[in-house]
Design goal:
Four copies of one chain form a homotetramer.
Chain A: H1 4-9, H2 16-19, E1 24-28, E2 31-34, E3 39-42, H3 45-48, H4 57-68, H5 81-95, E4 103-105, H6 111-126, E5 131-134, H7 143-146, H8 152-155, E6 166-169, H9 181-189, E7 201-204, E8 207-208, E9 214-215, H10 218-230, E10 234-238, E11 262-265, E12 278-281, H11 301-314, H12 319-344, E13 350-354, E14 357-361, H13 365-377, E15 380-381, E16 383-385, E17 391-394, H14 402-421
Parallel strand pairs in A: 3-15, 5-6, 5-7, 7-10, 10-11
Antiparallel strand pairs in A: 1-2, 2-3, 4-12, 8-9, 11-12, 13-14, 14-17, 16-17
Helix pairs in contact in A: 4-11, 5-11, 12-14, 13-14
Family (chains A, B, C, D): Belongs to the class-III pyridoxal-phosphate-dependent aminotransferase family.
EC number (chains A, B, C, D): 2.6.1.76
Cofactor (chains A, B, C, D): pyridoxal 5'-phosphate
Chain lengths: 422, 422, 422, 422
Amino acid sequence: MQTQTFERMESNVRTYSRSFPVVFSKAQGARLTDENGREYIDFLAGAGTLNYGHNNPELKKALVDYLATDGVVHGLDMWTSAKREYFEALDELILKPRNLDYKIQLPGPTGTNAAEAAIRLARKVKQRHNIVAFTNGFHGITMGALAPTGNRKFRENTGGVPTVGGSFVPYDGYMGDAIDTLDYFEKLLGDKSGGLDLPAAAIVETVQGEGGINVSGLEWLKRLEGICHDNDILLIIDDIQAGCGRTGKFFSFEHAGVVPDMVLNSKSLSGFGLPFSHVLMRPELDQWEPGQYNGTFRGFNLAMITAAAALKQYWSDDTLAKDVQRKGKIVEERFQKLASQLTDAGMPASERGRGLMRGIDVETGDIADKISGKAFEHGLIIETSGQDGEVVKCLCPLTITDEELEKGLSILETAVKEVIGG
Amino acid sequence: MQTQTFERMESNVRTYSRSFPVVFSKAQGARLTDENGREYIDFLAGAGTLNYGHNNPELKKALVDYLATDGVVHGLDMWTSAKREYFEALDELILKPRNLDYKIQLPGPTGTNAAEAAIRLARKVKQRHNIVAFTNGFHGITMGALAPTGNRKFRENTGGVPTVGGSFVPYDGYMGDAIDTLDYFEKLLGDKSGGLDLPAAAIVETVQGEGGINVSGLEWLKRLEGICHDNDILLIIDDIQAGCGRTGKFFSFEHAGVVPDMVLNSKSLSGFGLPFSHVLMRPELDQWEPGQYNGTFRGFNLAMITAAAALKQYWSDDTLAKDVQRKGKIVEERFQKLASQLTDAGMPASERGRGLMRGIDVETGDIADKISGKAFEHGLIIETSGQDGEVVKCLCPLTITDEELEKGLSILETAVKEVIGG
Amino acid sequence: MQTQTFERMESNVRTYSRSFPVVFSKAQGARLTDENGREYIDFLAGAGTLNYGHNNPELKKALVDYLATDGVVHGLDMWTSAKREYFEALDELILKPRNLDYKIQLPGPTGTNAAEAAIRLARKVKQRHNIVAFTNGFHGITMGALAPTGNRKFRENTGGVPTVGGSFVPYDGYMGDAIDTLDYFEKLLGDKSGGLDLPAAAIVETVQGEGGINVSGLEWLKRLEGICHDNDILLIIDDIQAGCGRTGKFFSFEHAGVVPDMVLNSKSLSGFGLPFSHVLMRPELDQWEPGQYNGTFRGFNLAMITAAAALKQYWSDDTLAKDVQRKGKIVEERFQKLASQLTDAGMPASERGRGLMRGIDVETGDIADKISGKAFEHGLIIETSGQDGEVVKCLCPLTITDEELEKGLSILETAVKEVIGG
Amino acid sequence: MQTQTFERMESNVRTYSRSFPVVFSKAQGARLTDENGREYIDFLAGAGTLNYGHNNPELKKALVDYLATDGVVHGLDMWTSAKREYFEALDELILKPRNLDYKIQLPGPTGTNAAEAAIRLARKVKQRHNIVAFTNGFHGITMGALAPTGNRKFRENTGGVPTVGGSFVPYDGYMGDAIDTLDYFEKLLGDKSGGLDLPAAAIVETVQGEGGINVSGLEWLKRLEGICHDNDILLIIDDIQAGCGRTGKFFSFEHAGVVPDMVLNSKSLSGFGLPFSHVLMRPELDQWEPGQYNGTFRGFNLAMITAAAALKQYWSDDTLAKDVQRKGKIVEERFQKLASQLTDAGMPASERGRGLMRGIDVETGDIADKISGKAFEHGLIIETSGQDGEVVKCLCPLTITDEELEKGLSILETAVKEVIGG
């Protein structure tokens, strides 16, 4: 595989090609193939972007058919047949069955664009600058989205321009099991000199992906919703990684029975790996003036075609959702065993997650890297997350076959065994 | 055409559907077709995103062929065959022939992501917070890119969080013909108490698209390059709208013989309307640590496939470039006539532009809106730009046929006649 | 008393004249006299500025003698005999006996100027923007000092310019007795994605004056010092209100055996109510370039004359310190009784404080205002503090006579009785 | 003279003691005396703080008399007899005769505190963040006042926290005689994408002191007033250095017939070198809530005593004002001669100023430093200003005797002669 082109021309900023230094040429379902023809099971899946697998055939068919008719590919935010199809599919298959009444904003096609738009709107509506985020939260790294993003790697490397307008409070479990972190949040909210400016919004992930598969309790989420409501604070759920079925329901907040004021989706929203995002908002919050937020790629019609196809294919009934729950249990059990083995071997580890968003916390980035590295040697692509990269994270396609899942888990078990063996 | 779905579900922020309130279903070359089968000549072309026309057949073929082989669609920033193909095409067809030596960063796939990345890197390299921009410049609206963007519509509506780290100096011609605005910039740079913090970078468009087709002189650009060099300031050319051949050369700065430290491209970079952007930078500026800038859609392989195809199809020789220059002259002459007619009718107007990036400044948004509105009635899509929307702007596909160009210009002439007639 | 002049000409921003709406004409020791000749016991003492009483005779003598010789009054930061006298008195009587080795910066003559200077220096030395403060901390309201100040009243009323570069963590006791808030701080410091940018400094009051007489434990302070040291964070003690003997030692941090990296003093530093402040810093932190921080009134010689006189008069031995401790106990006991009486009457209350910095927390600003109002009717000036004004605060002169102290406490008891009686 | 104490204990930030490395012990009128008994003529006068001279006898008498009666020295912002006396003197002697109707805010006692208060109020009233300042303007260095202050020395050394909410436009004459800089300002104000956010206020010095004795034209000021009025922008005149008679009238803007919305005074306001400042504002702008801006030393009664005495002594008629104008002409003529001599000797120089605020611009800091240094050797204290310290600046007491003025000018002439002679 020729890699000199990359080494010569690509910025040092590249990352994944450091962990997986091969050139990939093909991808199908839960499998990636490199230029030497070697196949890999993919537990990374575009960091949660490929919930329906690589080159999902149904979605690809819809895409190619659309191209064949010379459908509009790029139309800024003009009205197109594709956009109407997406809106209607979203309404019929997702919103109405869940009694959700939202308007849709299409910002730029990435998660960080969606976070920027939602944050700006929340500030505009409430006329307050502060956005409360939670420890280990991740919402993007453009300057607006970075304000409520916890990672020092990005926050402290902006060249002398600190982020403005974000504050952090502890996520569920951050202070140990004995403490409900919302007690602290609530105390700060009621405190006129506690240093927490009354926020326009709280932005939260129900399961933190980049933060290390931290799972918020369903009661905690419900209480958070109540606190926001009581204090006139908008609740924004960033469902960019946990949404689109990842946790076993379309929206991850459904488990908790929460109704956010705004919802962010991206990553698997197009279903095919096409850049796409939307902001859902309660209708009364739609206080934008025409054109007050824009972006060249804010209505990417190909993504809306595949997004609509994905909804029709997978969300007309609960088959996929139940299957995710079933597979999630499989991964949970296998990960628990791995955690036990590691712990027994003197490497304390624990399992956590919801649905097919699962991780093994091995407490150090070093051990996690070793496991990921060994797994790659044996044909499994799996990444680490968490503040120190200490969590081995499974984000396999939701549509992975049982056979592929088994293969991936077996490889992981081999990798762990080798790491334990030293 | 059913539009209630949009009216009910789409955020008020929508804009183009207000000027062109129909539902488009097909697009080919320089033509858009609505659901009633009505055809429109497209002088908007995705605000400069479709330089090679809608559904360009060569590019579409490359895209569909790639999909047929299950090529990798989404791979974060992993190495793929598609990425190598793009890098090599860029190197062979664009960089080497122009004696340019740049490294490539793929940030998020939109222009504002590219601006954020370049600005952050400039600050990091120079350890200075200030980025100098020019009056009427536009570089995106995420909070980082907004700092050097001039539009109050965005700047003043961020909900109580002012942008940080941008300063403005007058663009070429801003103070009238008699004054070289760079005199002022140079004086400020040398002044220890002038209020201009020594900038990390200057960011400039050689022709300002959103700002109203303001064209910088080639000597002015060359002098700007010298000033930046002498003051240890990076020169960033934002070629997002003016690049990819729009002005008659691949990079708009080639006319001036300038070699920027960084270049931003997006919009027509993929050639097919697919979200894509890159930052080019002198190799010694590539001081990123691995992973210090990221984004889920930063390596969109489909876009790289069409981008490579576009380079091969249109930039292997200078045929397209010369054709753009030829058509540019046609538009220039016709626009000059229209400007004269408007002026004679008591509506002072003037023409300006470079290549196929051209506008008629009619001095008020009201008149420009009327012209655009009348044009739409007659089957031409053309937008306005400038601080008050006072410039009717032609960004037709570079590949527009002479017949289509003629048709579009004729419609515009009819529209102008009707507006003059009252 | 003629008050129309004030009502007509003075800004609405005035506050104390709303609680104490008389015109004062004379002041001696712990007594203020209004224009009608009525005398008041002063438990406010310039909000802690008059530790040695109004018009302290020894200090006044030094001041008048200096004026008689035409000593330099204002000399920017030029060297004067008065400055040398102050520096030497500070060194001999305060620093050396406590084994403290500090350099002195004279910023503008107010506490907020000192906070601005210290914060800026900390950022400069550590090349980090973040300053950690504690809930309910108060350090001034100019924009730099406001960043680590908790009060929404100021923070949220800056006209659309949020403060930049401050973060808050919970003060000792903020989360209840069972939780050591430094556990949380320490966890955040070690967390690469917790949202707390690695701080340049932590700024803390050992007893929070404006925040409501919140008293940090001595072990908590000592542990804080250790955490700062271990994490390369500067520890700044804001001793503006708690210093100059208020807690029973010259510096309030002496109780804990802590040695801060920087110390802020102001308020009672001149001893005579003259505007004055200094920043003390470990010598290696003095990385200022000449002139990098300035201010017209940064070397107010009259204040240095009285400051030196105060040190000589009161800090040549421990007489005053011991007397403060003795009187502090008197106030503590009497306040405890008042708190019990209030609690018994259904108004839950508690006493807290250190030395002669003491308060009764009555839990609502309404009750506290009533007590303060009744006290004023009976001839006692006493203010409230805390986030909601819920703490009746005693900051009487340290030099108050036992008779005056008794009188003041008696009036307060009468006031409480009346409030209980309804 | 013992200076080791300073060298050991004082922060490196010290400046004036580097130019004038002696220890001063006495000061009278326009004369300073060092500990060796050497006398210096003082053309610095506390950087404009001692308009009425050191230890002005009338003011000292008022001060000592007040102290003798145990008048209130420090009373936060409580009403005192001293404050009423000051308010009434200001009203009767200054405001009413000039038909000015202002309310008074007493912020912290320094100029930067006044600037912070005025800026915050302007933002609050107009609900806009931007404050427009002018090139080479200086308004203080706390973070809020620094936003509209031009000096890189301070702006670029805030440790990674850029100032927020200030923009700069060119001061009168900045772009040469042929260009009215207000044309540019007006164009930016009317430009929706020029990058200048609509400002809450413009803040300007009529003669820039720190900026290098730059003198704005009276018509320019009047036009600025009109532009502000037409664009709903508050006009804040920072008269901290140019006010209190320095230019030949009490307020420097009287020359232009301008009525600012707010006025800042400090420096010579107390008349005796005591820290003091006020903000004057049109009554309808007084939209402060009680306590929304505070500060321990905001009502320094001793300063109000001397301020009232100064008004009574010097502003009951126009004797002083006329005398300032007369002496200003003397300095002007002598400075013009010096400028000619320097120019003739190959060191291009020019004179400028208004009243007794005058400078010789010698174009390099090096020459200016030499002149100042030689002058000091011969017994004259005179400082430099301007972005590069290139302007030798005369701010002698307004009450200087003709003999002292002559002596100072003679020394300066000697110094210039020596510098020319090499």
